[in-house]
Amino acid sequence: MKDMLGREGIMTADKALGLLIDALSSKRTEIISIEAEKSLGMVCAEDIIAGDDLPAFSRSTVDGYAVRSVDTFGATETMPAYLTLSREIFMGEHADFVLSEVSAARIPTGGMLPDGADAVVMFEHVQLADGSMIEVLKPVAPGENVIKAGDDVKKDEVVVRKGRGIRPQDIGACAGIGLTTISVFKRPVVSIISTGDEVVPPHDKPSFGRIRDTNSYVIAAMVSNSGGTPRRKGIFRDDYNTIRTAIEEAVKDSDAIAVSGGTSVGTKDMLERIIEDIGNPGVLFHGISLKPGKPMIGGVVNGIPIFGLPGHPAAVSVCFDIFIRPVLDLLSGLDSGLAHRMKGVVQARLSRNIASVQGREEHIRAMLEQHEDGIWAVPILGKSGLISTLVRADGTFMIPASRNGVEKGEVVEVRLF
Question: If you average pLDDT over residues 367-396, what whole number do you get?
Fold first, then answer.
C-alpha cells in the first residue's frame, strides 16, 4: 500500500513525528523576561538559582518553647526537666540573644530561634512551675519542631531548572527567594487557517450543503491548552493562490501553522503542492497508518512547521495530540520528562470488546465511569466527523498497529483531553 506521496508503505505516526522533530531540533521560540507571577504554564528559559537561604533563619514549626535539646534528655512526666524561662520571642522579631544553658524562651509558630537553641518543645508537653520556670515532660531531639536556615532552599541551589513548565509552586518558590522577574520562552504562536468552500463562520446560518467552522475553534483551544498562542486567520476558499497567500502571510509572524481541511485526495486538495512550492524542505509526510487521521500532512517551510489537519473533528483532536502538541513542547523549550508525558493519563478497564484493523494505529474516544471495582473506559463509537462524540468523551485510548483489537476487561491507558 502506498501513502499519499506515492511511496510504498504508509508511514507510522512515530516515524512521521520523528521526521518533524528532526527537522526542528534546533528551533526554539525567543526568550523574554516576565513577572514571575504571570509565568504560569510558560517554560523556564534558564536555571533559577537562589540568592539566599530559604528560610533565611531557623524557625519554629509549633507554638512552644525554644530549648537546647540536651537540657531535655531523660525528661518524663514523673521526672520533668526544669528550665528557666528567660524571655518571650514575638512573631517577626529578631531573636538577637543567645539561649543559655538550662533555659527556655517562649516562641510562636514561625518565630525565629535564638542562637544556642536547637529544638522546640510543644506547649502540650510543658507545665508552668511558676512565673520563671517550666517543667518539660517529654524530651526533644536536636532539630525537632524546627525548620533550619536553608532547609527549604540553600543559597546557590537550583530552584527551577531550565525547560520546566512553570507551576503554581514554582511561582511560590520564586517569591520565597525574592525573585520577581524570570526568563521564559515566549509562547509559540500558531496560526490557524480554515479552508473549504462549504465552511462558514459560526455566527452565520449555513445554507444547505454548508457547515459552520468548528475545527478552528477546537484547534485554537488546544493550542492555548498546550501553552501556545493561537491566531485564527479566517476561512479561505479552496483556491491555490488564496490558500498559498494565507500561508505565506502566516509564515511571517508564526512559529507554526495549522491548516484545517484540504488533506485528503480530491480535485480541490492542493495543500501538499502549496507547501512544496513555498519553501524547503517541504512536505515530510502525507498519509499515516492512523485512524482517525490517515490523510494528515506534515511539513516544514523555511523553519516553520505546517500541519495539514483532516476536516473531521475527531481526527483533528487525535492528530493534534500526536503531532502538534509535541512540536509545541519542542518550540517552547519544554523538557518533556516522564511526569509531563504521563500527565492526564488514566489506567482503566475496557467495558466492551473493540475490534481494530491490524497495521493501523487506532485511537478510540472513551468516557470514564467509576464502578465499585475501579475505573472503566466506555468507548464512544461514531464517525470521526461527529463533534458530539468528542464532547461526550473524557479522552482517547490507543490500539497499537500490531493488534487486531482489545478485549473487555483489558486495561487501557486513557489520555484525557
Answer: 90
